[in-house]
Amino acid sequence: MMYTPHTKNDVEAMLAAIGRENIDHLFQEIPEKYRFPKLDLPKALTELEAQAELQEIASANATTKDMISFLGAGVYDHYIPVAIDSLLRRSEFYTSYTPYQPEISQGTLQAIFEYQSLICALTGMDVSNASHYDGATAAAEAVIMAYHNFKGKRNKIVVSRIVNPQYRKVIHTYTQGYENISIVGDDAFTDSTLNHQELAALLDIDTALLLIQYPDFFGNIYDYRQLIEQAHAYGALVAVSVNPMSLGLLTPPGEFGADIVIGEGQPLGIPLSYGGPYLGIFATKKELVRKIAGRIVGQTTDVNGQLAYVLTLTAREQHIRREKSTSNICSNQGLMALASTIYLSLLGKNGLKQVAELCYQKAHYAADRISRIKGFSIKYSSTPFFNEFVVHCPKPVSLINLALQDHLILGGYDLSQEYPELPNHMLVAVTEKLSKEDIDAFCEALEEVTQ
Amino acid sequence: MEFPAELKYQKTDEWVKVVDDVAIIGISDFAQNQLSDLVFVEFNNESGDKVVKGDAFGVVESVKAASDVFYPVSGELIEVNNSLADNPEILNKDPYGEGWMLKIRMSDPTELDSLLDWESYQQDTRDR
Amino acid sequence: MIEKTVFELSAEGRTGFQFPDLDVPSYELPQDFLRQQLPLPEMSEIDVVRHFTRISQKNYAVDIGLYPLGSCTMKYNPKINEEMARLPGFALTHPHQPIVTTQGNLFLMYTLQEWLKEISGFAAVTLEPAAGAQGELVGALIIRKYHHQNRQVGRKNILIPDSAHGTNPATSSMVGFDVISIPSDSRGNVSIEAIAPYCDDQLAGLMLTNPNTLGLFDENVTKVIDMIHQAGGLVYGDGANMNALLGIVKPAELGIDIMHFNLHKTFSTPHGGGGPGSGPVGVTTTLKDFLPDPIVTVIEEGDEETPPLFGFSHPAQTIGQIKSFYGHFGVLIRAYTYIAMHSADGLRNISEMAVLNANYLLSKVRQKYTLPYERQCMHEFVVEGVWDDVPGIHALDIAKRLMDFGYHPPTNYFPLIVHEALMIEPTETESKENLDAFAETLNRIADEARLNPELLHSAPHSTPVGRCDELKAARDLVLCCWSDNLSE
Q1: Which CATH class for the B8-107 domain?
Q2: Is 3.40.640.10 the CATH classification of the domain at C80-340?
Q3: Do A359 and A407 fall within a single domain?
Q4: What's the pLDDT tens digit per position in C360-382?
Q5: How many C-beta atoms lie closer than 10 Å to residue C457's C-beta?
Q6: Among candidates A10, A335, A348 on the partner chain, residue whose Cβ is nearest the Cβ of C276
Q7: How many Å from the N-terminal Cα to the C-terminal Cα in chain C?
Q8: Predicted TM-score of the model (pTM)
Q9: Which residues does A contribute to its contact with B (CB < 8 Å)?
Q10: How far is B24 from A140, CA to CA, in rounded Å?
């Protein structure tokens, strides 16, 4: 299938205009022995055949429609209002480029400005950027921003073990070139669940950043105010990683002392899509605005005095600072930020509160029922949680989940993979998409596969 | 383009005015013209810090560029011009007067000898 | 027409979306943690749809017209790709699902890895990086780790041509390298003389974009790569300009050790107003153990009756995980569909037509625009947006005036080594008529510059907004609907 419109006549006329005999003559600068390799690829498909092939590939998957899913651990199967995709499909949005020419990009720019504003409203922070790739890279950028904020005078990053394991891995990857940075706190011996004081004990005047999660990776909600005060007493910055959906219900980190809020925006109208593309939320206080990596949109006026939107603070970015920039980020997640902007606008203050409450209630119902199954208990039963909780199971989670597949159920996340100190512990997530019948079926199946 | 004769200069476009053992430092008229309208000024050190010639003392940022600025002498940083934070445009309007950036008590005044006089600096800007 | 923000369009009590009623018992909410206020807008669905539809109409896009941005490859985004990415069989799969339930996804990713290997000649490919810049970070981290494994930690110098994209030096700094900028020679090639003194035991490697951002194929590419290798360094290829090389040359065969692809450039996945992109990275056999974690592999071979079982493996010396999960899967589906529908002949046709289009367009404008390097271009070219006899006109003015004729301007002021650069890449999906019309407009603007320069200075006139005050935007920061002046 070719999308090139050239006819034979076109090609002849164009070659004549540039004084070439044939197309091959355009490639004489390629070293001859490497020129025009044969590519061994399957025969080209037409659109009709491509549809059939991709459909067949897709049908080799089981989806959260085919099976009842209790998987969370950072990304969640929430309902996506259909209006979002119909707007995302407008080619003015998705086939346009980064808005470097503001005069013909006001649609994209205004949408990003609204995104930034909505994130500030949700998180309680002063300023947001136009997004990072995902929650994990937003966390890594927060670490790097904190490091540069102290100009290399503080080298310690304290990270709670109950921050999403993937975020912690990505932070290690991103900081391996910064030889002075040391990351502490995320080992199995520092208990950052109930007793934050073990984490607090690691704080000192060499600490650039404390990174905690809210609700944490196990789903638990903690009052971090005292811990944050302790970090601030040492002059360290505090970054809080959030599930933005939970902020439909919970006090936002901007109100309890966070300097930086990061998180995964996928719950806000973005499909699961097997891992991406997602949305990295990054918001901070106004004092740190010039330290933020990534694109930012600001309001201004045009030459006629009319309100207009532009990319601003661009002097910080890679295309100007080059090797002196603090981050290499170029793209943001434009279309995903747009999706979350439309989601938050559509749901609004009432809708987001409603969906957050539905998740909360259904999760609590599930926890309640599971706690009554023989052999099962809720691990952090006296700690409040949002829509995820840890279940101590009578058998390894991998075995339970294998058996559940026959019941067309996708069981929760096996925590033993990343937390060897928690064998037989399952992280169960519940969203508004699950009905009481779904939850009851899960509980019945759990009982059946473990008796 | 002004190049006051009583000042000394660096190729990185900073000027120095010497008053007893104190060096007053800023950026040249040529520099502010190159950068055009400045929007932000950031300092790397605070009063009381010991600083070293050649290290970066901060960043001056305009819409289209962000440039490092460098200490022309070593010593103790005694004062930073805090009014530049709110009004960076002073650097454009009056780079040699109100637009001064910092004051250093020099630890080694012989470092001044390696700086350029106004004619050499002017020539240097022409050669670029 | 000013369009209010969603906050300004809000009205108390309005709602845009209803959820079903609660069907389980009600449990007590965590009183200590409930937020008091949630200052989000309240809009009806029709208001939301109208608002975003109206603002979309202020955008220019590939689906509207030519978008000649150099090194961005703004080619047509096939609609079939959009349909395939949305198949529920793909979209409703959770990344933590057991691999036996996602064999379709894993097959697609594995096959795409194999295809990218075939197209580029590399021995192994990761699909994990989220964008080109992340692909570069992967490349730089691999170079660093490779040298560390060989106990050569002193290798700190990365050579980067002065024509390189800003992400190249930015990435190198993030990894702790020292950036050495290498000038280009008079023919636009990387200067061999400038490289030679750095070919020692402090050399980590060279980052090379080929064709470069001038649109020129480096005439000394194999020699330069050889010099770097002889000195013990590695060569990283920035694959942003791969649109000129599909079926024309395999970069790995030229000697490149690591290269990133931009799926949102070469492989037609949409730019989305700034993302999401995808930046897979290919490496030689020597480096495959350093790839990010995880890689899609065949866990169990199949036979005539059973397909192979696909899953994930962990490269033995991995630099680590670079982002969550496995890559921008939704973008990968689009690239897979694109390659499946083109195959070898289709891919080669892309590059042939891309290079033909660029050379043809250049031939039509070079009477009026100065070409700094007297050479045939590849898929893009750079001209100067300035004339000695019209001192008041700059590339910016030409760019703004183009908008009045319904075009998006080319990239301007990049690469930095050309004065008032205009970097033009038509791509292969433009017809001869489109190129003729665009050339005519560029030439007309060149005439206007002499006869009526005020038209350029005051341009654009026919766009939703005029030239914007970027100084004001940077000084009086308004980045959020209600904090009026952040610089207070």
Answers
A1: mainly beta
A2: yes
A3: yes
A4: 999 999 999 999 999 999 999 99
A5: 16
A6: A335
A7: 30
A8: 0.95
A9: 151, 290, 314-316, 320-321, 324
A10: 40
